[in-house]
Amino acid sequence: MSNNIRKVKTSDLELKDRLVSIQRVTKVTKGGRTFSFSAIVVVGNENGIVGFGLGKASEVTTAISKGVEDAKKNLVKVPIHKGTIPHEQTAKFGGAKVWLKPAASGTGVKAGGAMRAVLESVGITDVLAKSKGSSNPHNLVKATVAALIELRDANEVAYQRQVDLDKVFNG
């Protein structure tokens, strides 16, 4: 991840949460097996803000609510241009590799599983996405968010290069 992480405050936001994955985990003790639950949750306002969180508890509903609270602490702002992403982007986390490419209006979200939940939560309506390597939902969510954090819009590129916006497009 780069230095351009854009943190967001949670006040005044209408966040919607999506459950990506829930796992039943087992701890074996000398008294037998103890079951608990692990939930990964994505929250977003469907307008450029997204976050993910992990919750663990002995009950499903408690694990989900803990995941939502954790996700609200990790919100980031993502540039969206006409319902899609500004440019092609790849990212990797653990064994999961993701590839995102802008798509024409009307294409829809061509992504599966954990990637789809993140992209819909951030408000992207048209994108082509591919995941390679591990299909572990935890790593896929983290890789997708890492790819979204790396995105830069034209205004940001112009500011960093210290040139006019026209020069970014016309060379």
Short description:
This protein is α+β, with helices and mostly antiparallel strands. It is built from 5 helices and 8 strands; from the N terminus they run E-E-E-H-E-E-E-E-H-E-H-H-H.
Q: How would you describe this protein?
A:
With 171 residues, the protein is of the alpha+beta class. It has helices at 60-72, 113-122, 137-150, 154-161, 165-170, and strands at residues 16-29, 32-44, 49-57, 76-77, 89-93, 96-102, 109-110, 127-133. The chain has a 4-stranded antiparallel β-sheet with strand order 1-2-3-4. Strands 5-6-8-7 form a 4-stranded mixed β-sheet. α2 packs parallel to α3. It is elongated, with a radius of gyration of 18 Å. The mean pLDDT is 88.
Please outline the helices and strands.
Elements: E1 16-29, E2 32-44, E3 49-57, H1 60-72, E4 76-77, E5 89-93, E6 96-102, E7 109-110, H2 113-122, E8 127-133, H3 137-150, H4 154-161, H5 165-170
Parallel strand pairs: 7-8
Antiparallel strand pairs: 1-2, 2-3, 3-4, 5-6, 6-8
Helix pairs in contact: 2-3
Total number of beta strands = 8
Kindly report how far apart the N and C termini lie: 27 Å
> What topology, given as strand order, has the largest sheet?
1-2-3-4
Oligomer: single chain
Helix content: 25-40%
Strand proportion, as a percent range, falls in 25-35%
Mean pLDDT: 88
Low-confidence stretches: none
What is the SS-derived class?
alpha+beta
Give me the strand/helix succession: EEEHEEEEHEHHH
Number of helices: 5
Give the overall shape, derived from the CA principal axes. elongated
Largest sheet, strands/sense/barrel: 4 strands, antiparallel
Rg measurement, Å: 18 Å
